[in-house]
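This protein record is not my work; I was only asked to verify it. The record follows directly below this note.
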Amino acid sequence: MNNPKGIAYAALSSSTFGLAPLFTVTLLRDGFSPFEVLTYRWGVASAALLLFGLATGRRLRIARRDFGVVFLLSLFRAGCSLSLVFAYANIATGVASTIHFLYPLAVALAMTLFFRERCSRRLFSAIAVSLAGAALLSSGDIRSNGGDATFGIAAAFFSVISYAGYIIGVRKSRAAQVESTTLTLLVMAIGAVCSILPLIAGYIFALFIGKKVKAKDEPTNAEAIGQTYEELVASYGKLPGAFMSFAPIVVPIILMGVASAFSMAGSNPAIIVFLGKPIIALAVGLILGVILMAQSGKMGEFYALTDDTLKTVGPILFVTAAGGVLGKVISSSDLVNFITTHANTLETLGLLFPFLLAAILKTAQGSSTVAITTSAGILAPLMMTLGFVTPLDAALVVVAIGAGAMTVSHANDSYFWVVTNFGEMEPQDGYKTQTLGTLVIGVAAIINVLLISAIF
């Protein structure tokens, strides 16, 4: 309590943040989607932070080694904001905000359990009282405009986890060494600016191709009006709540995200590392899926559903495995030496080179993950050789690799078959939609990157 300036900043921060629900709900009621709300919000905020940084003479560069940490923090911050907007769209804003403001307790508890900070009875008493208050607020009908209360509560608690991870990352990772204005600007701007053209291009392409390609299970007008909503729900029997419906997918993502956050912060608790391993996290999701079936009274259909599932995913698994083997072969080749030898020639391509490298790897073996990791591993020791010397260059190389790693998705990509099989489309329709769509978005993304590079 001996720092009036810090208290004044905290008061200003809390009061301005408290106005966010008012304007967010207003935009949602006017027909804006959560994604549109955040795009405009983060875009304006990034521009304001940039002007503030320039006006006050702040250094807006970061070291190349800090970029990965800043990028991961941006994902935590984006997850927090997006989930909170979803919460506002489904439950009362007061309840959503109250749940969200449990994040200081989540931070304190995590710091106590995993970073050995001092704990006290007051801390645990505050956690108990806060959880009890959130539980009382969450009882009764708290829906907003007929939203899903369970999904809204889950989204609000996800915002707590995401924001707590962001704060812990800021305090315990290399990000603590980055100037605060620079860190905040980069965290918000990186995810916003480089997505503008891809979003526009993807939307226009979807409008165009949606008129030409129809899925097999797409209902006709007669079929669409054949059943009322109540009759449709009754035909499926008892439906699970939103939380259990999303849990088999969301819980593994949370487990892996939390493990990454602790790893980034330099702490590796055994239980977090164990649950955060992809195979274990997915196993947890599988168990939750079986529980969901049991609650729906469909365990008698377990073997039939498993058989149908294996028929669908079997070819996908084989394609994925083959792509992984090819990616390993490519990464073990003499490609690095070739790039080093021809660095003068490749340097003339600029940011097109990391894009093309990732795109070739993606197209050849199908896995975006393999394309990203292999491209990053090849380029990391050659950044100076290829002329990428500033932090901004490093940031743009990362985005260029990401753009290339989505270009293009076709028959050797497992996700291509997920889209075609579950979308009830023929492979040729998958090429028209998924393959061309990823090409359009990837090219738009690299154009966006080149424009930013030309400006800055």
In short: The mean pLDDT is 76. The two ends are 42 Å apart (CA to CA). The first helix runs from residue 4 to 18. DSSP finds 23 helices and no strands in the chain.
